[in-house]
Amino acid sequence: MSETELRELSWDEAITLASPHPYVLGVTADAAGKPNALGLGWWTICSWEPPMMAVSLGKRRYSRQALEYCRELVVCLIGEEHARGAWICGTKSGRKTDKLALAGFTTVPSLVVKVPTIAECVLAFECQLAGELETGDHILYVGKVVAIRGAAGSPKHLYSLHYRKLVAISATGEVSLAVPHEG
User: Fold this and answer.
1) Does a structural domain hold residue 6?
2) Which of 138, 141, 153, 175 is in the most buried spot, having the most CB atoms within 10 Å?
3) pLDDT value at 183 more than 60
């Protein structure tokens, strides 16, 4: 069998083969108003007019509970220089940890939504939830984009390799390892 012939794959093998996946941070807030950052590998633009984005969160996650409460989310693209902090936000629980502080991020007020924006991001989409769909062990949330901010320049954006490590890729295709998997 040549390597170009199709063969049946496991779900894990398929997700690995489909990598890299764009990796961003989301910011929401819990019932006490505490901001919570979460790593998002499952996100996409889903409407041009009106501008809308979709994110998928695990049903048992604290971040999902926070999003259900506040119904707002800021999707932040993070540059390579903040990859370690982005990894922390995607691998720790915010239930008892201030992930933003642990990751070394600061926040600034958002333009429209109540939840803050990560000051160190290069692009931020402020979203208000418009709908949701249960999808197995995750819930797909659709948010209407109500404000957008960005920083000048062309940084390397983060991508997840099967949620085990992050790489950074520039608009010109330059690639570097941002954060390796830590056992």
Assistant:
1) no
2) 141
3) no
Q: In percent, how much of the chain has pLDDT > 70? A: 95
Best CA proximity match to 22, nearest among 177, 159, 122: 159
CB 29 within 8 A of CB 36: yes
Question: What is the torsional sign of CA 106, 110, 30, 80?
Answer: negative
| 3-state secondary structure (DSSP) of residue 68 | helix
- Residue 6 DSSP one-character state: -
Task: Please tell me the pTM assigned to this model.
Answer: 0.88
pLDDT tens readout for residues 127-179: 999 999 999 999 999 999 999 999 877 678 888 887 778 888 887 778 887 67
Strands 52-58 and 43-47: antiparallel
- The per-residue pLDDT for range 66-111, each reduced to its tens digit, is 999 999 999 999 988 999 999 999 888 888 889 999 999 999 999 9
Ramachandran assignment for 51, one of left (phi > 0), alpha (psi -120 to 50 degrees), beta (any other): beta
Query: CATH code at 137?
Result: 2.30.110.10
Contacts of residue 132, Cβ cutoff 8 Å, sequence gap at least 6: 139, 140, 141, 142
**Domain contains 2:** no
Number of domains in the chain: 1
What is the domain range of residue 59? 11-179
Assigned token pair, 3: 């390597």
Residue 174 structure tokens: 């330059």
Counts for the chain of helices (H) and strands (E), in that order: 4, 13
